[in-house]
Amino acid sequence: MAFFKNIYGHDRxxxxxxxxxxxxxxxxxxxxxxxxxIGKTTMANALAQTLQCERRMINPGxxxxxxxxxxxxxxxxxxxxTMINADTLDACGHCVSCRAFQNxxxxxxxxxxxxxxxxxxxxxxxxxxxxxxxxxxxxxxxxFIIHRADTMTVQAQNAIxxxxxxxxxxxxxxxxxxxxxxxxxxLISRCVVFRFKPLPVPLVKEYxxxxxxxxxxxxxxxxxxxxxxxxxxxxxxSETFLEMRETVIGMAQSLRRSDLPEAFARFAxxxxxxxxxxxLLDLFLLWYRDVIIVKQTDNNYLLIQKDKxxxxxxxxxxxxxxxxxxxxxxxxxxxxxxxxxxxxxxxLEMMLLKMRGYS
Length: 359
Fold this sequence. Notes:
Helix 10 crosses helix 12, helix 12 crosses helix 13 and helix 12 runs antiparallel to helix 14. Helices cover 48% and strands 9% of the residues. The protein is of the alpha/beta class.
């Protein structure tokens, strides 16, 4: 459900939005910028539901959604804004508007998505500009949540720019972006920008455990996702990722036993994961990191992949520390080359040769 109080992290952004609502000073155009899965859509949904709520709530805590919360009718003219606790301002979850939002059929919250790979001028004209010519169907605002707004073409951005410059009083635009540099400077200047940063790993783990994930799996996915709750959830449900992880571990273990032609043949299978090569190399780094930790400390407390403890201990016992460090360095160099647009096959072959040279 879309409530501010259920959002993990991004406290400063949530507090700023709540304060703006409480003071009736929310900008008509907002950019939520950050990587995929970082929490932009969740925040946009909480904002939209709260804005449209027929009786916004002052909620005392994350878990409590009972009818004992103190509420007020935002349309009541005698409400004193100074009495509103912005830190706990939230949607009620019970009114007609909130129920419509939760059922994904709110008439005055419009989700704008690209018909193709990018949002074109026709998308803006049909899904946004035309909609702003009529008043809200029933509620206070007409809210436009524009998904992957950074994929708007230059023509599409120019088409929406005039609307952002002279917006109708009822319109609010929330632009979700993964690359703010794709926007025209003139468009950015018309918006308030909120940058979503990766969350602390313990907070991601807390979310995963609170939502039913086992502790060891939550450890792994919270660290590997690098502070991204959506990324952690996506990886945990991806059969391709699980296959890639098993492939990496099997390949790392086999290097000690394989001759060079066999190792090259096994490495050729990595081409299947070419679209996620950085993730694949991160898994190699994670494997050698865990093996080195065990080699150095003989303690699994600091292991990230605790579910692979037996395999990690076996590798640590069979391999010298300097060899493990050299293999880690070979993977890291390949990762850097690929980040600088190095050749995929050549980078992996050089990585293999360096790793085999130390086996």
